[in-house]
Design brief:
The chain is α+β, with helices and mostly antiparallel strands. It contains 31 helices and 31 strands.
């Protein structure tokens, strides 16, 4: 059977029905109704949410309403348009927003476009079409598709990140971050001018003790760069030659490839812009507790931030074992460890191959006595290190840390001194140590760490037991098969003439040795994080230009607000220079750098006209989505990022929400440590600087599931069009050939995409909305089945028939009181639907509406007006077009959008009676109709007095009666 229903067959059936029922609800009627009401909503500004400044001032009733801010995650305007999987979240937020309006809220709900990004640029490279041209065409198509779904967005507030009036403020925010520093004592960001004042007054000394006035401009800039929240630095980056750009850690997959394009990613050192998100690590962690987010997302962020307490310890570096003197420059290797109690067990050290000290500590020749296993077969340490670095650069971080792989590495030729034992320890480089955590260097305690144990065995390195095993294996690691690790055992072999840890537990040993290291200047207690500063540069054209210029000394200056927005210039070639994907020895070349007239500019930044060179990288595609929730509030404000009163009204702190934020934010879980983490960081900076009152952007987060579809593949494994596959006897065939079927993503490349336009044409938008909301719980993935859509179409048809005569088009409701059964069915439905819509349980809400509608259909006769109107109001958030039409036909002139949602009468919600089952020896002997509020004593008396129970007992006594009021009585005879 085809996955789609034949339009011709449906049309033929529809034509026959229309002959006898000219006013039947059909796809054609649905299209007419939906287009008319969409036009009405647009013309009347039905979904326009008033702001507190001005709009609400003259409307006391509206001003008294509680507010509700509902958002979807930014869509990217793809050239392929929407398939039916995309609107799932948009329909859900629309239903929620509509329900909130009907329950007395002032609702802000809109949608814009996250329109910068790689796909448009790649399309431009392929076709020569300007990215703005293709992106705006894509946005126009998506707006048309979204409008057809009847989404109740305030169109006045819609934004696109590519609009200069939007990215002017993205650039403005970057300038504020650039001109700020994090004060750990105040635990907040402060303007950089306040730090300069501290240096100038001598309140804060410079690192070398010179007066601030004695530093030249470059020295001052370099010093401030160590504090700025946005800074440029030469640092290890993720370089993807195949893309021609660098990537943030979060944009690299677990197997070391680019998230976009699946290209190899290498470690390289380049000068790039960074955001000092690490300064906010503790606040980003602590404020998670107050957010109404899924625990799985909170856990991902906690793990990504990766807070751990331990100590930093300095190991002096020597050129060779036993020389007794430090190497030139008195180098120290600093390690971070959470097990400073095991310092006496450190018998060697390992640096990440990329560590900045590697080149400076490598001697000219191998020290005497260097083992062959340590050299990698190379004649000199320099050759060994260079070869190993090249080998490590070709591996992903996951490959480097794989537990099952053989441990590899080479000796650097240098030795360090264990600061507590005084013993020389060889320094290796090995790929299992990464620069992304700690300091990129470890003290290896092989007796008590499995990776160090394996490395020590492979390289014949000594092992010393300093934590006494509790499993009877003894204290000689040479006899062990694996390392021993414990937080419960006692310390041994851990003493010198100044300190002893022997006999102490782990916690006690840490508490003793940490201050001892601090007193001697060889270590200090510290907290470490897995989180790294956010790499913010991209070697792309289609992104926000940095509002930064460089003077002749290379000092960075931010542009003043009067020079914003800095718009993208025209370029002839949109592509960054790309390279062989596997060639790590390459460097970026940006498209903007080719426009010399734009790059080299004369500006007056306050000290007269000077020559400057613009930054030629662009911001990542995450920049606009870090703050767009704020611009929705006040999108046409050309004086401020957002009016403070407007921001406070929609997002400010409130009862139960101390950090403020959007009331409901719906989107995919895949953005847990990308967009969501970045947006939280920007909010906190803007909050610290006093621009907003909300320290968090999104208070409540809901992750919708995915609509999946069957993928059909032929014998070659190539996807075939799902709509052309036929099912015969449980097997699937395409053009006569048997094909396989698996459930997967929906998409153009898999040839299984179904567009919302198809379904709207076949059944109408209201049917599509109902079907997507009825498929299952919103947070669960579910398979699409076009054949099942007709079920919701029939629901609307039955609803229509309960109000409208299909032959005459006249309303058939009557002004009569409903009977008792109908009143109970109505108010139970109202109560249940309210609870379900409050909890985003749209599928069960639809089930309750269907049950009530079926009750009315089966009852026969005309439907009471009060019941019909309540039913229309209940379905209005889910199927707004047909609800508007029926509401109008029922004689109302105002829109259903702002009508009050029905309220249940408690007297009709509780069942008048419930059925109680009476069992004797576990077998049912009677059923009693009893009050839901009956007591256990009353129920027991009624059960024992029932004639059927008396007959079943046949005079036998009763040993025990178990009562579960009001539904069960179990009698145990004597």
């Amino acid at each position: 059977m085809s996955q789609t229903i034949s339009s011709a067959a449906a049309g033929a059936a529809g034509s026959a029905a229309e002959t006898t029922a000219p006013h039947r609800y059909t796809a054609a009627l649905a299209a007419d109704i939906e287009a008319r009401w969409q036009d009405f909503w647009d013309a009347n500004g039905t979904y326009e949410a008033p702001n507190p400044s001005g709009d609400l001032a003259g409307d006391a009733e509206l001003a008294a309403r509680p507010k509700k801010y509902v958002m979807d995650m930014f869509p990217y305007p793809s050239g392929a348009g929407l398939h039916v999987g995309h609107p799932l979240g948009y329909i859900a937020t629309d239903v929620h927003a509509r329900y909130q309006r009907m329950t007395g809220h002032n609702v802000l709900h809109t949608l814009g476009f996250d329109a910068f990004g790689l796909p448009a640029e790649q399309y431009a490279v392929q076709t020569g079409t300007h990215p703005r041209t293709s992106t705006e065409a894509n946005m126009a198509n998506m707006r048309k598709q979204l409008r057809r779904l009847g989404l109740g967005h305030d169109q006045r507030r819609s934004v696109a990140t590519i609009d200069p009036e939007f990215y002017r403020w993205t650039q403005w925010i970057f300038v504020q971050i650039f001109n700020s520093w994090y004060d750990p004592e105040a635990d907040r960001a402060r303007p950089i001018d306040e730090l300069v004042a501290q240096f100038a007054s001598g309140e804060r000394p410079t690192p070398d003790g010179r007066a601030w006035a004695e530093l030249d401009a470059t020295e001052r800039a370099d010093l401030l760069s160590e504090y700025r929240l946005a800074y440029a630095s030469d640092a290890p980056v993720n370089w993807a030659p195949g893309l021609g750009t660098v990537l943030a850690n979060e944009e690299v997959t677990a197997d070391g490839r680019s998230e976009r394009g699946n290209f190899p990613v290498f470690k390289a050192k380049l000068r790039q812009w960074n955001m000092r998100i690490t300064a906010y690590a503790d606040r980003l962690l602590n404020d998670l507790d107050g957010l109404d987010w899924p625990e799985a997302i909170k856990l991902q962020q906690r793990n990504w931030i990766g807070r751990s307490e331990g100590a930093r310890v300095d190991f002096p570096v020597h050129s060779a074992a036993g020389t007794g003197g430090e190497s030139a420059g008195a180098e120290h290797i600093t390690v971070f460890t959470t097990r400073q109690d095991t310092l006496f067990g450190a018998t060697y050290m390992v640096l990440a191959p990329e560590h900045e000290l590697v080149a400076s500590i490598v001697p000219a020749a191998w020290p005497e006595g260097t083992r062959d296993a340590w050299t990698g077969g190379h004649a000199t340490p320099a050759e060994a290190v260079a070869a190993y670095r090249a080998q490590a650069a070709a591996k992903s971080d996951v490959e480097r840390q794989a537990e099952a792989k053989d441990k590899t590495g080479v000796f650097t030729g240098a030795f360090a001194t264990n600061p507590v034992s005084g013993e020389p320890v060889p320094v290796f480089i090995a790929d299992y140590v990464l620069m992304g955590y700690g300091t990129g260097a470890i003290m290896a305690v092989p007796a008590h760490d499995s990776r160090d144990f394996a490395f020590a065995r492979a390289f014949e390195l000594p092992m010393r037991c300093v934590v006494e095993p509790t499993d009877g294996r003894g204290t000689d690691p040479a006899e062990w098969d694996e390392a021993f690790s414990s937080y419960e055992a006692k310390l041994v072999n851990s003493a010198n003439e100044l300190i002893s840890l022997d006999g102490l537990g782990v916690a006690e040993a840490k508490a003793r040795i940490t201050p001892w290291l601090t007193e001697r200047g060889i270590g200090r207690g510290t907290v470490n994080y897995r989180l790294r500063d956010w790499l913010f540069s991209r070697q792309r054209y289609w992104g926000e230009p940095f509002p930064i210029v460089y003077d002749e000394d290379g000092v960075a200056h931010s542009l003043p607000e009067s020079m914003l927005p800095l718009e993208l210039p025209e370029v002839e070639d949109y592509s960054p220079r790309t390279f062989d994907p596997d060639d790590a020895d390459t460097e970026p070349e940006t498209p903007l750098s080719r426009n010399e007239d734009w790059v080299n500019v004369t500006l007056d930044l306050g000290d007269g006209p000077r020559a400057y060179r613009r930054e030629t990288n662009t911001m990542p595609n995450w920049a606009g989505s870090c703050w767009y929730e704020l611009r929705y509030l006040d999108p046409r404000n050309d004086q401020k990022l957002v009016d403070p009163d407007v921001e406070r009204y929609w997002m400010g702190p409130r009862e139960g929400v101390p950090t403020g934020g959007v009331d409901l934010y719906v989107g995919g879980a895949e953005h847990a440590v990308l967009h969501l983490l970045y947006a939280r960081f920007w909010s906190k900076v803007l909050f610290d600087l006093g621009y907003i009152s909300s320290a968090e952007p999104f208070h409540k987060l809901f992750n919708q599931g995915m609509i999946q579809a069957f993928v059909y593949r032929d014998s070659r494994g190539i996807a075939v069009p799902a709509a052309e596959v036929e099912e015969r006897d449980g097997a699937f065939y395409y053009q006569g050939e048997k094909v396989s079927r698996v459930l997967g993503k929906m998409g153009k490349s898999l040839k299984n995409a179904v567009t919302p336009d198809e379904i709207c044409a076949e059944y109408g938008a209201d049917t599509l909305r109902l079907y997507e909301m009825a498929m299952g719980p919103l947070d669960v993935s579910r398979p699409w089945d076009t054949r099942a859509v007709v079920g919701q179409f029939r629901l609307i048809q039955r609803l229509w028939r309960n109000v409208v005569d299909e032959a005459t088009g006249q309303v058939t409701v009557v002004d009569a009181e409903p009977d008792e059964d109908t009143l109970r069915a109505l108010h139970k439905a109202i109560d249940g639907v309210r609870h379900d819509l409050d909890g985003l349980r749209f599928n069960t809400a639809i089930a309750k509406i269907t049950e009530l509608n079926n009750h009315l259909t089966k009852s026969g006769g005309a439907v009471p007006r009060s019941v019909a109107e309540a039913l229309v109001l209940m379905i209005a958030p889910l199927a707004p077009h047909v609800a508007e039409e029926l509401w109008h036909l029922l004689g109302h002139t105002e829109s259903v959008v702002h009508r009050d949602f029905p309220v249940a009468d408690p007297a009709y919600v509780v069942d008048e009676t419930v059925t109680c089952v009476v069992q004797i020896k576990g077998k049912v002997k009677a059923r009693l109709e009893v009050s839901p509020s009956i007591t256990q004593e009353e129920l027991e008396k009624a059960a024992l007095g029932d004639e059927r129970v008396v007959a079943a007992l046949a005079g036998a006594g009763v040993r025990k009666v178990i009562v579960r009021a009001p539904k069960l009585v179990n009698i145990v005879p004597a």
